[in-house]
Write a structure and sequence with these properties.
The chain is of the alpha+beta class. A six-stranded antiparallel β-barrel has the order 1-2-5-4-3-6. The longest helix is centred in the C-terminal third of the chain and has 22 residues. It is globular. The protein starts with 7 loop residues before the first strand and ends in a 5-residue tail after the last helix.
């Protein structure tokens, strides 16, 4: 689990295919952090552009991580090439401050950067995402773009916009985006869980209604805090 507060950038040093079956190919990515990292333990999680990966080797300068076919299909890691700058964040420790929001590192989809506007010293950035994920993006809610925790300023249809301050533009690759660039998008996990629970309730309500019964019982109200 992560917070979306990127620690710094790293540079991709090497990408190699590790082979796969059925015409699919997995990859191994080598990244050199451009900030001080004392140690990375084998097996620990690290976020690369918002994608949670597992460290498989660390020589004190460069770490390696394996990228599955599923991850390649859901993210921009398949686009990366040597020399590219990526956002890095190590996993959240118990007891750390949660300065951003709960970021799982499980990318939902790839979005497209559309344009930027200068607003004072900050930048307003506009993105477009696939229609089926737009319902999870709400005004003043949270979204992770390339692993960066951001607040949604506004949203309309399948587009949303965010503001970034100069510090964010300087220490992440968000400030380097050009119109047409693809980015990793992770929507707020809480919204997806709420939707799943409500769908289950709706199915149960429909089933009970068909049987002539109501699911709103005294036990139900107690369970969900409406009665003591």
């Amino acid at each position: 689990m992560f917070t979306g507060l990127v620690e710094g950038m790293g540079v991709v040093r090497r990408i190699e295919s590790t082979g796969g079956s059925g015409g699919s190919w997995d990859r191994r990515i080598e990244v050199e952090p451009l900030f001080e990292v004392e140690v990375l333990s084998i097996g620990e999680s690290i976020s690369i552009d918002g994608v949670c990966l597992t460290v498989v080797s660390w020589n004190g300068t460069v770490f390696r991580a394996d990228v599955s076919t599923e991850t390649l299909s859901r993210s921009t890691l398949g686009d990366r090439k040597p020399g590219d700058l990526v956002n890095l964040e190590r996993a959240l420790k118990v007891g750390d401050r949660l300065g951003g929001h709960l970021v799982m590192g499980h990318v939902d989809c790839v979005g497209v950067f559309k344009k930027r506007l200068e607003e004072g010293r900050s930048l307003r950035l506009f993105f477009e995402i696939p229609d089926r994920f737009s319902r999870y993006v709400v005004e003043k809610g949270s979204v992770a773009v390339n692993g960066v925790s951001l607040t949604v300023n506004g949203c309309s249809g399948n587009r949303f916009d965010v503001n970034i301050i100069p510090h964010t533009a300087m220490v992440t690759n968000i400030g380097l985006l050009k119109p047409g660039d693809r980015v990793n998008i992770e929507t707020d996990i809480i919204g997806k869980y709420v939707e799943r629970i409500l769908l289950a309730w709706k199915r149960e309500d429909n089933r009970s209604s068909a049987e002539g019964k109501s699911v709103i019982t005294e036990d139900f109200l107690k369970l969900h805090g409406f009665l003591k």
